[in-house]
Amino acid sequence: MKKVLGGSLLACAAAWGHHGVPSISLTGVDGPGAPLETTSSSTLPEGSFLGYLKLDHAKYKTYTSARDGEMDRTDYWLYGLGYGATPYLSAYVFMPYYTKALDDSTMVSGFHDVNFQVVLGLVYDEGFKLARKNESLDDMEDWHFTIFANGTLPTGNSERKDAGGALIDPGMQTGFGEPSLMVGASMTKWFGNAFTFVGDCSYNTFFEHTYDDGTKLRFGDEIRVNGAVTARVYEVPKSRLRVDASLEANYLYLGRDEEDGVGAEATGGSILYTTPSLRVTYKTISAAMGVKLPTATDLNEEDLQQGSEGKERYRFIFTFSTLF
């Protein structure tokens, strides 16, 4: 039975972590499901646009009762537009907007560095082939893969200063000051029933930036490995309505930052998150939400890294997307 996906394909923006580099997860009413943070292996329909937004709200643990400048929360908004250039090649542009708030009422907000991404879709069917324009339900059960590459340009502000004219901490800035690069790959297997397995990995690296005060800083490299199982828990085929539940394991390795060529204290480490989520897909609209919880951490200077990844109480994540 041939069933054309075409305009039924939807999408959502997925993970962006330590320094704001996003990845993509796609889903449709038919076929494989898509988790919240793990990148699925789909491309946009040829000639179609995707619009979406995402909120990643993080609430951090604090360790003193005084208002002494501990990180309280961050709100990372992501606005994006995607385009299916061919059935196997999609391109995206992302515009992040960050708010970072300390417990002493200090707050920094602003647009971060613009991000560009290209995604190449592949399918394994008696050998690797480029992703197809139309797929039957049987075709969708083949292993699907993507290879993706991201790059940011330093359009954000990396030189914000406090009321006294001193440069604020680089971690509170809304720009890297230099480009950054990321490469990654994903794989997706739909078992032809309610269940889908999705996995991805990526590597992110940063260039050294010299701040106005002469300090040189290079953010540590980042490695992500994600795995997810998605189950279709409710559907009304006549109305083109579908609800999926997902459970993910999200591993993040943060390399140590380098300041003036020397490893910076209180940076780097490894975190394993667990992320349960729900997604509702209706015709060409998709919305998902979930909670990302740090379940195991191994930070380099655990006691000094308040406000870093792994020190959250929770992260609440919401995405909305539409295809047109």
Describe what this molecule looks like in 3D.
The structure is a single chain. The chain is mostly beta strands. The chain is 1% helix and 58% strand. The chain contains one helix and 20 strands. It has one helix at residues 137-140, and strands spanning 9-16, 22-28, 49-60, 71-86, 89-102, 107-111, 115-124, 128-130, 143-152, 180-190, 195-206, 209-210, 216-218, 222-236, 241-254, 258-259, 262-263, 269-282, 285-299, 312-323. The strands form three sheets. It has a twelve-stranded antiparallel barrel. The protein has a four-stranded antiparallel sheet with strand order 12-13-16-17, with no helix packed on it. A hairpin with a 4-residue loop joins strand 5 and strand 6. The longest helix has 4 residues, at 137-140. The radius of gyration is 20 Å and the shape is globular. The two termini are 26 Å apart. Residues 1-18 have low confidence and may be disordered.
Write the layout of secondary structure elements.
Layout: E1 9-16, E2 22-28, E3 49-60, E4 71-86, E5 89-102, E6 107-111, E7 115-124, E8 128-130, H1 137-140, E9 143-152, E10 180-190, E11 195-206, E12 209-210, E13 216-218, E14 222-236, E15 241-254, E16 258-259, E17 262-263, E18 269-282, E19 285-299, E20 312-323
Antiparallel strand pairs: 1-2, 3-4, 3-20, 4-5, 5-6, 5-7, 7-8, 7-9, 9-10, 10-11, 11-14, 12-13, 13-16, 14-15, 15-18, 16-17, 18-19, 19-20
